[in-house]
Amino acid sequence: MPHITVNGAKLYYESHGKGSPVLMAAGLGGAGTYWREQVDAFAKRHTVFLYDQRGTGRSAHVEVKSIEQLAGDTLGLLDALSVERVHYLGHSTGGAIGQVLAIEHPERLIDLVVYASVHKSDGYRERLWGLRKAVLETMGPETYARLTTLVLYPPWWIAENSHRLAQEEAVSARMLSQPAIMASRIDSILSFDRSADLGRIATPTMVICARDDITTPLYFSEQLVALIPSARLVVLERGGHACSKTVPEEFNRRVLDFFASH
Length: 262
Hints:
262 residues, 8 strands
């Protein structure tokens, strides 16, 4: 299993396919396994890079200081792999990382897809994430994993995939970092706010979100598009917070077409 030490943290990564490079960054869970429904489709046209962020999965389980630190890790990984520019696809926390890269290192991005993400927190997010943090700390990883299912996926998809989700929740609970490390990741996304800098983004940007996303409701994506010059908004009618997994064919088509246009 390939690892690279970046900024003092050992990071796990994978590469698939051949072609112009695509970097995929996951959300709070942070693991490259999130992109299972994307790898084969994207690897037909691109070299796909996946990685586990610090504090998650097969990477070093160390605390996270900020989204900017995670962006620094991402940049360090690209440097270590000698990849100069990428198509960037970031989900939720990964979308926040992409915003930092587009603001501070635009020369490294061909284009940017901000998927089900935010530019800052608000009272709704603070309540939701405060609850998730409290569940993890007081009720343990198994209950936290079950709650995560409810906020990631829409009801219809949960009903159709109940047996599969029970298995995935068990795996997720085993892979979860210690509560203090997960809390540091939650605190980092809650304190993130680069809204004042979004007007500087010149990278071609697509913001994509499902209408029934309850974790990062559509209004966050609408605000991102209003703040990022020339950004385009794509709204999927259903799919929840993890629409890349629940409606992968539509999601993949939209993102691949966007990358192909650059």
